[in-house]
Design brief:
There is one protein chain. About 50% of the residues lie in helices and about 10% in strands. The chain is mostly helical. It has a two-stranded antiparallel ribbon with strand order 1-2. It is rod-shaped.
Length: about 100
């Protein structure tokens, strides 16, 4: 007779491999119905661990200034020598939208 820990290990393997219960049962020669039974029975004890995938990213720093054009209204534009901070753009947008109303 198989131990509860063995069934918990089978269920953990299914979760870790990302394989269907049916495919795992076929591969291991185990009844899928038995695996479903043990999943229901052990549900409080066997919870999938959350996985976090982090990917390293390297951001290339821009050395050249980027010109920026902000259209304030039809026919009215503001030419900037460099891209301003997002907070400044947000403040200008809010101020212009208040004036347009």
């Amino acid at each position: 007779m198989t131990d509860t820990k063995d069934w918990a290990a089978h269920l953990a393997a299914i979760e870790a491999e990302g394989i269907s219960t049916q495919a795992y049962a076929r591969r291991e020669g185990i009844s899928a119905a038995t695996l479903y039974y043990w999943r229901r029975r052990l549900k409080p004890a066997v919870q999938p661990s959350p996985t976090v995938s982090l990917v390293p990213v390297q951001v290339k720093e821009e050395t050249a200034a980027q010109r920026c054009t902000v259209w304030l209204a039809p026919g009215v534009r503001l030419e900037l020598g460099a891209l301003p901070p997002a907070s400044w753009l947000s403040a200008v947008t809010a101020a212009v939208s208040r004036q347009v109303r």
